[in-house]
Every structure is written in C-alpha cells, then in structure tokens.
C-alpha cells in the first residue's frame, strides 16, 4: 500500500518532467535548460507543499525522485529526436496527467499529516498547479492556471473528492479523485469548457 | 489585545485579496483564476515570512484566513458586476491599504519572535511586498515594487517606525507605523513622489 | 577555517548583489528597487537551499549579510555615477564570479549536513542559479539559466568536482570546484560555448 503510493508519486513526477521537457523543446532551450525546466515542473509544487506543512521536503531525503526526472527528461528528448514537431495537445495531455496525480497525492499528504479538510484541498490544488505555474513563468508563457480553462478548478474538485472519500478508503479516494481530475481536465481541453471570464465593458487601461 | 492583532491581520489579508481580484478583473481571468490571484497576493508575503523565520505558516494552522480570502474575493466580484470598469486608482488604493497592514504585521511577528531590529524591518517590507510582487509577475505586469514610486521604501520607513516604538507599546507601534506607511504611499500615488531613478546616459543595450 | 568559509560566503553575496545592482541600473530602477533586486539576487538561492534542507535561513540569524548587500549595492551605485554606461560583459562577469562562489558554498553546506552526493550537487546548482533566475524574472529578462550558454551546466560540473574532493579536503574542494566553475563560465561567455539547442524543425505554435 505504502509502496503503491510511492510509485504513484514517482509516476506524477515523471509525467510533469515530461511536460516540462516538451515546453523546453518548444522554447528551443539547451540540454541543461531542459533538465532545469523538467525539475521545476516536477518537484516545484511538492516542495512548496512540504515547506508549508513543515514536513521534510520529499526529494531532499530520497534522491530517487531526481533520477526519475532525469530518466523521464532524457527519454522524452530521445523520443523527440524522431519527431519534427510536437502538437500543443501532446503538451496539454501530459500536463493533465501530472495534474491528476499531483492533486490527489498533495491532498493525501496533508490528510495523512491530519490537517483540516480545507487545507488538504488547498494543498492538493497547490501541489498540482504550482510546478506548472513556475514552468510557464520561467518559459515566459501565460500560466495555464490563470487562463479560463477549468485548470485549478479541476484540482479543487478532484482534491475535494479525495477528501470526501479518504476517511473510508485512502486507496479508493486516490483512484476516484485522480480519475475525476483527469477526465474533467481532458474534457476541458477537448470541448473547451471554461468558467465565465470577467470582462471590463468600458475603457481599457 | 491578541484578538485585536488577529483581526488586524485578517483585515490585511482581505484588502490584499481585493487588490488581487481587481487585477484579475483587469486581466479578464476566469472565476478560479481570480481566487488564485487573490490568494497569492493575500498570503504570499506572510507565507515567505513564516518559512524564513521558521514559524508555523499562519494559514496552514488557521483556515479562517482562507475563508476571509474567499469572502473578500466574492464580495469584490459581486461589487464589480455593477461597475463598467475600474479605475487604476482603485487598485492602487486597495494595494496601499494592504501594504500598510502587512508592513506592521510582518515587523510585529518578527519582533515578537525576538529577531534583531534589522530583520524585523526586512520582514515587514517582505511581508508587504512579496505577495503583490507575485501577483504582478503572474499577471505579467511590471512589479509595482520595482517601479520608481516609493513602494518598498514606504514599507522600509513604516517598519522602522514600528520597530522604534514597539518596545514601549506594540499597539501604538502598530497604529503609528501603519498610518505612516499608508500616508506615504497614498501621497506617492497622489503627487507621484519618487526616488531618483538611475539612468544610463549612453548607449542602450 | 570556519572563518575562511564565512568570508568566502560574504564575498559571494557581495558579488551577486553587484550583479543585481548592475541589472537594476540597466532597467532604470529607483534607489530602493536596486536594493530589492540586489538582495533577491544575493540571498534568493541560499534562502531556498536552507528552506529545503531544513536548516536555519542563514541571513535571518546573521544580519551582517544584509549589511554586506547594502554596502555592495551602494558602492556599485557610486561607481556607476562615474560611468556613462555599463557593458553587458561587466554584468556577465560579475554574475560568473557569484556563480562560482555560490556553487561551491551551496554544495558545501549540504555536504556538511551529510546529505547524499547528488543532493549536494543539486544544492550547489540551485544556490548558484536561483537568485539570478529570480533577478531575471523580476526584471523581465529571459533567465540566463535557460539560455543555451553553459550556465547551469557549469554549476553542475563545479558542484560535482566539489563533492568528489570534499571528503579529502573541504578547503581544496572549495578552491578547485570554484575555479573550475569560474573558468568554464568565463570561457562560455568569451567563446560562446554552448550545449546543443533543441529545435523544432516543423511548424511553430
């Protein structure tokens, strides 16, 4: 069970490392810039979560996470050698999987440390969104989280589902919460669901 | 007394949440992007302060701060429904009030934990400026703190006033320091006070 | 010995404070914006390192670092009064020295706290690169670390050299690691060495 969570966590790290590598590729970065962007995306959210919850930062005490990032980034680079370009959709899909993994793992870590429910929901959302936000700020893209595409909202819903089920079965909560997040986000990408956007009707600045 | 400080702190959080919401509105963000920007602005500075001083992060152990943010952001959204546009000045004024509250609360938290005077001044300035800096970076504005408008300087002065008075009366220090910060900043906005700006005279890069 | 490390650390802080001041000058910031940018550059990386390793944040308990920043920034400002413009190369060179100091000091701090070798390498790289990354994000430049110029790669090599030698002699490791980092980076600037850059061959987004 513990082991299952552990591998689930590594899977999330790998997927976000891939998403960082894909964006670095689009931005024509060099080999090491790729590793930096992959790492920031993969461990940025979890690092902030652990700092705020005053837990040991997960990767500082278990370097295998860093090896996961390196393997995922190098694998992606090799795979990209055989492609002329990458679809924006590939990047969005990798990001959606990372989002689903990290939302439930973030909520779970707070839940296991016995924080109140709302903090678990916030931590799930933050773990999932912060790494990608750093990735976009560094690569000078508009952060996905701030665009009107049900991004952070899916994390909020997925983490809430996790919290509701977690007292009965953490494993079931992980699966249901993760699947809900993933489907909502993929649906938002596919059918361009979005929340109402605020708009100024009058003069612009 | 303790309770007074507690409410003062919530007031600062609410005001900065409003300022984040107003900027999100200007940038046409969706409903949840607004909450994210409001939260980052409201708790970014205090989070960094608590991490650096190795204190428990204030909102992780007292979720009422999160409810304050949600209420302030939703209230602002409702209010904005009846407005065609917002003046840049409204945003600047909300920001100035947040700045005043957070400068003295940040200095006070470091002072109560018995850090040296210069650290209290730095923490006041950082608590006040960091959230707004994150807000501007995320929304891709030039951070106010880096523009030549007596921004961080007012925090520095306000926090210094707090530190000078705090040994006699924390409450008086809070009021005087806060009022000094607020008036200096409002004056800087109104009459465009600014520090000398460095300028290159020769070739530009 | 301890004292030697201590001064070495201050030297790194001073050099990065100078590099932050130079960039602020290029960007026409005001007097306090300069201090903010100098501070962020000088202590950003070390702050993140200490937070992640769960060590006391170095400058919060020893304010002399802040005085070092102020003196370095003011000294640079005075020096700039007598110059019409600054060469981009001056900025790059100051940055290279800061990079060399911080790489070995970051690796050393992790090594002394007995973290595994890969974490020491990561911490060296992070200490050196993070402050400059924040500087560039705030000043809205493309972060040097993400451009194809052997930036983070030199830190990785320098920190690895440190770790390989540190078990025999921390002092020797500091000197050799620092010199290797400095020479690699200066060479990269002078002869424009770079790693292969990834490029999309087909359509752009």
Automatic annotation (TrEMBL), chains A, B, C:
<protein>
    <recommendedName>
        <fullName>Glycine transporter domain-containing protein</fullName>
    </recommendedName>
</protein>
<dbReference type="GO" id="GO:0005886">
    <property type="term" value="C:plasma membrane"/>
</dbReference>
<dbReference type="Pfam" id="PF03458">
    <property type="entry name" value="Gly_transporter"/>
</dbReference>
<feature type="transmembrane region" description="Helical">
    <location>
        <begin position="64"/>
        <end position="82"/>
    </location>
</feature>
<feature type="transmembrane region" description="Helical">
    <location>
        <begin position="32"/>
        <end position="52"/>
    </location>
</feature>
<feature type="transmembrane region" description="Helical">
    <location>
        <begin position="115"/>
        <end position="134"/>
    </location>
</feature>
<keyword id="KW-1003">Cell membrane</keyword>
<comment type="similarity">
    <text>Belongs to the UPF0126 family.</text>
</comment>
<feature type="domain" description="Glycine transporter">
    <location>
        <begin position="6"/>
        <end position="79"/>
    </location>
</feature>
<feature type="transmembrane region" description="Helical">
    <location>
        <begin position="171"/>
        <end position="188"/>
    </location>
</feature>
<keyword id="KW-0472">Membrane</keyword>
<feature type="transmembrane region" description="Helical">
    <location>
        <begin position="6"/>
        <end position="25"/>
    </location>
</feature>
<keyword id="KW-1133">Transmembrane helix</keyword>
<dbReference type="InterPro" id="IPR005115">
    <property type="entry name" value="Gly_transporter"/>
</dbReference>
<feature type="domain" description="Glycine transporter">
    <location>
        <begin position="93"/>
        <end position="165"/>
    </location>
</feature>
<keyword id="KW-0812">Transmembrane</keyword>
């Amino acid at each position: 069970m513990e082991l299952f969570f552990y591998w689930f966590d590594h899977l999330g790290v790998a997927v976000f490392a891939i998403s960082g590598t894909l964006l670095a590729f689009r931005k024509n970065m060099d080999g090491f810039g790729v590793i930096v962007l992959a790492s920031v995306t993969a461990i940025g959210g979890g690092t902030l979560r652990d700092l705020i919850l005053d837990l040991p930062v997960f990767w500082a005490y278990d370097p295998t996470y860093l090896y996961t990032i390196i393997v995922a980034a190098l694998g992606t680079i090799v795979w990209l050698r055989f492609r002329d370009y990458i679809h924006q959709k590939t990047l969005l899909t990798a990001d959606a999987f990372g989002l689903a993994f990290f939302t439930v793992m973030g909520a779970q870590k707070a839940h296991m440390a016995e924080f109140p429910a709302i903090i678990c929901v916030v931590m799930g959302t933050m773990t999932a969104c912060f790494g990608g936000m750093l990735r976009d700020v560094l690569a000078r893209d508009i952060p996905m989280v701030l665009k009107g595409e049900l991004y952070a909202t899916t994390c909020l819903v997925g983490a809430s589902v996790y919290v509701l089920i977690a007292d009965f079965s953490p494993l079931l909560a992980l699966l249901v919460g993760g699947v809900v997040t993933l489907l909502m986000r993929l649906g938002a990408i596919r059918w361009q669901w979005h929340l109402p956007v605020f708009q100024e009707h009058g003069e612009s600045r």
